[in-house]
Amino acid sequence: MTTVSTSARRKARHYAMQAIYQWQISQAALNVIEAEFHTDNDMSKVDTDYFHELLHGIVQHLGDIDGAFAPFLQQRSLEELDPITRALLRLGTFELQHRLDVPYKVVINEAVALAKKFGATDSHKFINGVLDKTSATTRAVERRADKSS
């Protein structure tokens, strides 16, 4: 089993967020978007398997993902969210639901870092709050273990 570097995963999330953003705007086929990313970007230091899993997994499980974080949107609807915030919440929630090997704190920190880079002013605070509440339900056992240690 090969170990994947933290930076390769970080880059995979970076590109996955951009690809999900593009999909949300264009509704283009995922394979087309994925191929464009491989053509237009240097993917040599990217965990491309993780990029693929994120991109396809988010779209495949979209209803479950949106349903998991929607209750925590503070009286906003999903449609009211800007596309970057929506993409980051979907990315983070997918990881919380489907990548139990990634600690919930890492998931939240990575989404917050991307929000600081790409999101609207202070969107990282909103994303942090929504994903923290989402993790309380999706990762309840992990959070309890974290508090007891």
UniProtKB/TrEMBL annotation:
Example of a GO MF term: RNA binding
CDD domains named in the record: Terminator_NusB (cd00619)
Superkingdom per UniProt: Bacteria
Alphabetically ordered keywords of this record: RNA-binding, Transcription, Transcription antitermination, Transcription regulation
Domain NusB/RsmB/TIM44: 10-134
Gene Ontology biological-process entries: DNA-templated transcription termination; transcription antitermination
Chain's role: Involved in transcription antitermination. Required for transcription of ribosomal RNA (rRNA) genes. Binds specifically to the boxA antiterminator sequence of the ribosomal RNA (rrn) operons.
Stored NCBIfam families: nusB
Family per record: Belongs to the NusB family.
Protein name: Transcription antitermination protein NusB
Organism: Exilibacterium tricleocarpae
